[in-house]
Amino acid sequence: MDMTQTRVAVISIIVDAKTNTDTLNALLSDAGEYIIGRMGIPYREKGINIISVAIDAPQDIISALSGKLGNLPGVMTKTAYSNVVTKLE
Predict the structure, then answer these.
(1) Which of 18, 19, 49, 84 has the greatest CB tally within 10 Å of its CB?
(2) In this structure, how many other beta carbons lie within 10 angstroms of the beta carbon of residue 66?
């Protein structure tokens, strides 16, 4: 896949509630042009936050974002890719 194609994916993120989320939010903000939607759920009983991010971007952008997020302390990510591939106009 090249930069002339985008792919729809969902990045699932689990965050330790004690983690500083400034960097996480900055990374998501930087990718804002590709993000379709975002849902966050605080799970107070378990001390975590669950975030789901729907994204339509070139595959390398999605992979880089997921990797950067997953490298943050207290943050775990998994990405699920759809088979929907679109050529950029």
Answers:
(1) 49
(2) 20
pLDDT band at 19 (very low <50, low <70, confident <90, very high): confident
Let me know how many helices (H) and strands (E) the chain has, helices first: 2, 4
Task: Map out the domains of the chain with their CATH numbers.
Answer: 5-87 (3.30.70.1150)
In which band, very low, low, confident or very high, does the pLDDT at 30 lie, cut at 50, 70 and 90? very high
Q: Which two tokens stand for residue 6?
A: 């985008």
Confidence category of residue 3, pLDDT binned at 50, 70, 90: low
